[in-house]
Amino acid sequence: MESIGLIGYGSMADMIARQLLKHKQVEENELFVETRTKGERLQALLADYPDVSAKPLEIWAEKCALIFICVPPLHVIETVRRLHPYVNRNTHIVSIAAGVPLRLLEAETAAVISRLIPAITSEAEAGISLVVHSEALAAQKKERLDELLSAFSSVREIKESNLDAASNLTSSAPGFIAAVFEELALSAVRNSGLTKEEAFDFLIHSLYGTGKLLIEKKMSFEETLNRVATKGGITGEGAAVIRASVPHVFDQVFEKTLEKYEQLTEQAAKET
After folding, report:
1. pLDDT per position as a tens digit, 108-154
2. How far apart are CA 133 and CA 147, in angstroms?
3. Are 31 and 137 in contact (CB under 8 A)?
4. What fold characterizes domain 173-267?
5. Do residues 3 and 65 lie in contact, with contact meaning Cβ atoms separated by under 8 Å?
6. pTM to 2 decimals?
7. Beta pairing class for 112-117 and 127-133
8. CB 46 within 8 Å of CB 52
9. How far is CA 69 from CA 62, 235, 259, 270, in A?
10. For the domain with range 4-159, which CATH number is right: 3.30.70.2860, 3.30.470.10, 1.10.238.10, 3.40.50.720?
11. Strand-pair category, 66-69 with 31-34
């Protein structure tokens, strides 16, 4: 197996590292991590996998065929520059940052580049990994990355122009879903004698079951609604309110988030 490096060790990097190790996609002593703050998350990893290296990238980058850059968007370019003396066209760099396009990354390195947008749901092996590859990336490297990610997620290669919107439906979606359904549960509490714990319990199980129906039974959203809502019934009344009110909310969500992606790209470009 090849050596793999991770630079930055936040929540997504932790998920990637642990899943690669769990599924034996990398040997413990072939995984290298550099992070500025060696906090509890990294210490927990090292406690579970003591042969993982947490040394500076200058020590290990040259030996790694694959390096994940998992730092915040505005630190990506400087990280690529730090890697410059240790990488070449045989090195595959994968950036998980939002808002930093391939063109900015490719201008800073001789290495070949991919962008990856992971999802926290991959901790439960139920997430989608969005990938975009540079044209220079060899098929063998593309296939190897797909193999690694497929051990714990479903891999989807898409056009970079669609990556930001798709990220809202994959990487950001668990947060959006949590925000929406927390409000639904709290509304139930305000309008009944249910406790918050009861409302959350009922709704979480409903979400889990709905997801299983959508995936395992291949039911569409429309079919799911039609199975539950009888003509003139209570569910139909509630669904009508949602359909009248929610589209504007989600249009605002996309407007604000896509604007934020553009701002990140502009800020990253200033670093080049």
Report:
1. 999 999 999 999 999 999 999 999 999 999 999 999 999 999 999 99
2. 15
3. no
4. ProC C-terminal domain-like fold (1.10.3730)
5. yes
6. 0.94
7. antiparallel
8. yes
9. 15, 46, 23, 19
10. 3.40.50.720
11. unpaired
